[in-house]
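Hi U.,

Before I forget, here's the chain from the pilot set. I'm dumping it here mostly so it's searchable later in email.
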Amino acid sequence: MRLTNYTDYSLRVLIYLAVNKQKPLVTIQEIADAYHISKNHLMKVVHQLGKMGYLENIRGRNGGLKLAKLPVDINIGEIVRQTEDDFHMVECFDPKKNACALAPACTLKGVLKQATQAYLNVLYGFTLEDLVHNSDSLMELLNQHSHKVGDGS
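Structure:
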């Protein structure tokens, strides 16, 4: 199973904000620079995370972003479930697109459905707090990475 860029960026935004908890507000541009991601890509992600209640988006000249919940209250499985388009691992998972001749008797579908559920169950076992327990190391890496932009590395 592979996550979409949208989900990946959603998780990265949340991690960045959790690691930078000492800052009152962070800008989308700061996050874009830290990860070398287009600001335009992040704007949609940030907007949606705000609508879902994970971020507080403050507009204006001195605006920015901050977590709307404590990291311990942000479940990774919920984020993935809310940001992924679908979990159709194979065509037969989607009745509208299923053209597989084996579908009526195939047991692979059940196996893959169980695998998908196990994957999600693991993600539901973690919070944002679990992902940033090593926040000092993460911050150091983010700082190193964003400084490499200007030196051609």
